[in-house]
Design brief:
428 residues; six-stranded mixed beta sheet; alpha/beta; Rossmann fold; 2 domains
């Protein structure tokens, strides 16, 4: 065993803690009832005499099996801390969380987290769970639809059957299958070889071959050895995998499923089945070239997908040089016209007012009227016109010629992510 000052795991964990502190989070321990204590990272005291008045929307991250929460959610906690009150608890028997209760099910874990949030004064929140944490997130959303506003379930086979555990052990290799312990032999490694096997299952890229044995042994000692007996009981206490019928009911909330394309623990086929089981308000996003931990392998894409889901449909916001133009009580006849610039065709849309209600959001920037996606709602249908990214430099003369003399809100809108375009050719 390496001493703390030489341990790569101990040194890196100090870095993780510093990152969360710099994001405004602090670590606390709360007794949620007479038997159970949870340790978590959460927002520090708010400014002013009434911290509750300054609260942001609450967002809860629930980790999977393996290392404690900060190892699995540090990058997301840093990213979302600016816009959300982020809570990152260690589930029971992980990190500093423990219980004297004999209960070991994921519903018990969900109840403990719910009590923690009650103690923290959080009434409504969104929850994000990965792997085992996705099981807990599902039950929180199922038990408290009035509290959980949105649910994100990542790489979590809550629809698994009895045969899925045996299949996972076979995918892990002959050693795990012969061990007779099923998922526990895979998820709770005891040797460097079994740790490499788990990394091969969880990570899309072959990183395990580059890590020396002494580092893997340090990881096992500091992150996997504690409460091993109780963690095995958590796996055997799961309410799923009791038979060959998925024990999943539909959820009332909007649900986002995020999966790694190359997940070998819960294959992506389970995600498509789960999407059908959870109801009609479910969206599935599969991230390419990732495995069981897409939040670590492609952090930017994972954060983008989750942030888009949590914030809802994009809104045009008052942040540009000119105000938005909102035109109400108009429906529109759409005429697509094209302009040839730099040898490529660019689409324009002409808006001709009629009498039906409509909304047109537009923004001005650098004397050009544009926006990324134009949404027009009709009484019978909705049209979403996509963008054509331009290049080069804007010509205000051409733009002025386009809009000059067109009144009654009949104008031309160019679809673009950039206001600067070099126009060549003629509009016809």
């Amino acid at each position: 065993m390496l001493p703390p000052f030489l341990s790569p795991v101990a040194l890196y964990e100090r870095h993780l803690r510093r990152c969360l502190r710099r994001s405004g989070l602090s670590q606390r321990t709360v007794a949620v009832d007479g038997d159970t204590t949870l340790q978590f990272w959460g927002p520090g005291p708010g400014p002013g005499p009434d911290p509750a008045a300054a609260r942001k929307p609450a967002l809860v991250f629930l980790h999977g099996f393996g290392p404690k929460a900060i190892w699995q959610w540090r990058r997301q906690a840093q990213h979302f801390a600016a816009a959300f009150d982020v809570y990152v608890p260690d589930l029971v028997f992980f990190g500093g969380s423990a219980t004297r209760s004999a209960e070991r099910s994921e519903t018990f874990q969900a109840a403990a987290v719910g009590k923690l949030l009650e103690k923290a004064g959080v009434e409504r929140y969104a929850v994000v769970g990965t792997s085992y944490g996705g099981f807990v997130a599902y039950h929180m959303a199922r038990m408290w639809p009035e509290r959980v506003e949105r649910a994100v379930i990542a790489s979590s086979g809550i629809n698994r059957r009895r045969s899925d555990g045996e299949a996972m052990a076979k995918r892990a290799g002959a050693g795990a299958a012969a061990g007779g312990g099923g998922p526990a032999d895979v998820m709770l490694p005891e040797t460097a070889a079994s740790m490499r096997r788990l990394l091969g299952m969880a990570v899309s890229r072959r990183v395990s071959i580059m890590v020396p044995d002494f580092v893997l042994n340090d990881v096992i000692h500091r992150l996997y050895s504690e409460n091993r007996k109780e963690k095995i009981e958590l796996l055997t206490g799961l309410t799923t995998e009791k038979d060959d019928t998925p024990q999943v009911s539909a959820l009332q909330q909007d649900v986002l499923l995020v999966w790694g394309e190359n997940d070998r623990i819960f294959p992506v086929e389970m995600a498509h089945e789960l999407k059908e089981l959870l109801g009609k308000k479910v969206r599935l996003e599969v991230i390419k070239d990732t495995g069981h931990v897409p939040q670590l392998e492609d952090t930017a894409q994972f954060n983008k997908i989750v942030e888009s889901f949590l914030r809802g449909p994009p809104r045009f916001r008052h942040k540009d040089i000119f105000k938005y133009f909102i035109f109400l009580s108009y429906s529109s006849c759409i005429i697509i016209n094209r302009l040839n610039y730099c040898g490529k065709w660019v689409n324009f849309v002409r808006l001709v007012p009629f009498s039906c209600p409509t909304e047109l959001g537009a923004r001005c920037r650098n004397l050009s009227l544009f926006h990324e996606t134009l949404m027009m709602s009709f009484s019978m249908a909705s049209i979403n016109l996509t963008k054509y990214p331009p290049r080069d430099v804007a010509s205000c003369d051409v733009w002025n010629r386009m809009i000059r003399g067109r009144s009654n809100f009949s104008t031309w809108v160019y679809f673009s992510t950039d206001a600067r375009v070099e126009f060549r050719g003629e509009i016809f």
